[in-house]
Design a protein that fits this description.
Ribonucleotide Reductase Protein R1, domain 1, six-stranded mixed β-sheet, 309 residues, 25% strand, disordered N terminus, 3 domains, five-stranded mixed β-barrel, single chain, alpha/beta, OB fold (Dihydrolipoamide Acetyltransferase, E2P), Rossmann fold
């Protein structure tokens, strides 16, 4: 290299596989991994952020974050947690054992739709017939929502426990993940890790490499971690029992309830332009619920979200 010429390693673009504290594990365009430190304290990184790095120094340095197309957050009243950025779709894993929370599912849907992230629902543990029947029954109130959003529902048994149950590869699921960056969401206990290990046999090896680099726990997911899979990427996220949406406005929340717009298109707009679909007279949404066009549970979930926001 000519003395005084710019270093070929400066300002190299890379994407964050995972981060912990002031460190990040990134992959560049040539497939090389770099353990990086952040330059300055004004950066708020997320898994799958595109960044510019200087790999001529050791450890490499993240110089800046590049613009995001979207970012998925969980937020409580005074604190938010970034899950990942630049997402093509979310795969939400649910099951009947334990029975998933339909409130958490509604919240995840709202968070995704507000960021224009498409979705896929995966019902896991379908080898357990009675729990799966309960899951299907609870999921039924979301049927119209999924249809209007264009979200598919697939059923799998990633780690069958029922004797004699034969698990076959789900081609539809693999096809849905191919060449896409998919964020995997699910409350604790849904079998998300088993599903990821089934989809990507080397999943544990890849995440252990990330954990060793960042010196984080190997056996539990404490931060979002991204691995290559099916010519795309899967982003594993920590399981949770809460999914706050304090960063979303009421208008953004309503995007996760497309039935509301459909009801007003069919029956005319609510009497009041700022109708919250609570106790207001002349509410087209409540009329659609009373006539059975919209599941009553969907309205109660909406009203619960408004009271919590």
């Amino acid at each position: 290299m000519i003395v005084g010429s710019p270093s070929p390693f400066l300002d190299m673009q890379a994407r964050i596989l995972s981060h912990h504290g002031r460190q990040a594990w990134v992959i560049d365009g040539q497939g090389q991994h770099h353990l990086c430190m952040y330059k300055g304290r004004d950066q708020e990184p997320m898994t799958n952020d595109w960044v510019e790095i200087d790999s001529a120094v050791r450890p490499a340095v993240i110089l800046r974050q590049l613009p995001r197309k979207n970012a998925l957050l969980r937020s409580e009243a005074h604190r938010s947690k970034g899950l990942a950025a630049n997402i093509d779709q979310a795969m939400i894993v649910i099951s009947g054992d334990p029975l998933f929370s339909d409130e958490l599912l509604a919240r995840m849907i709202c968070a995704c739709v507000a960021e224009d992230i498409s979705g896929l629902i995966v019902v896991n543990k379908v080898d357990l017939s009675q729990p799966t029947a309960r899951a299907r029954q609870q999921l039924a109130s979301f049927t119209d929502c999924f249809a209007q959003l264009g979200w598919a529902v697939l059923e799998v048994a990633a780690k069958p426990k029922t004797p004699g149950f034969i698990q076959t590869e789900n081609a539809d699921l693999v096809r849905a993940l191919t060449e896409k960056t998919t964020l995997v969401l699910g409350q604790s206990g849904m079998g998300k890790s088993s599903l990821l290990n089934w989809l990507v046999p080397e999943f544990n090896a890849q995440t252990q490499e990330i954990s060793q680099a960042l010196q984080t726990g190997r056996h539990t997911t404490t931060a979002s971690r991204m691995v290559a899979a099916h010519d795309g990427w899967l982003i594993d996220t920590p399981g949770f029992q809460l999914f706050g949406l304090h960063h979303l406005s009421e208008t953004q929340l309503a995007l996760g309830f497309p039935e509301w717009a459909a009801a007003q298109e069919a029956h005319g707009r609510c009497r009041f332009a700022n109708c919250h679909h609570l106790n207001e007279p002349g509410c087209s949404v409540k009329q659609a619920v009373e006539s059975g066009e919209i599941a009553a549970r969907r309205l109660s979930l909406w009203q619960g979200l408004l009271k919590a926001s």
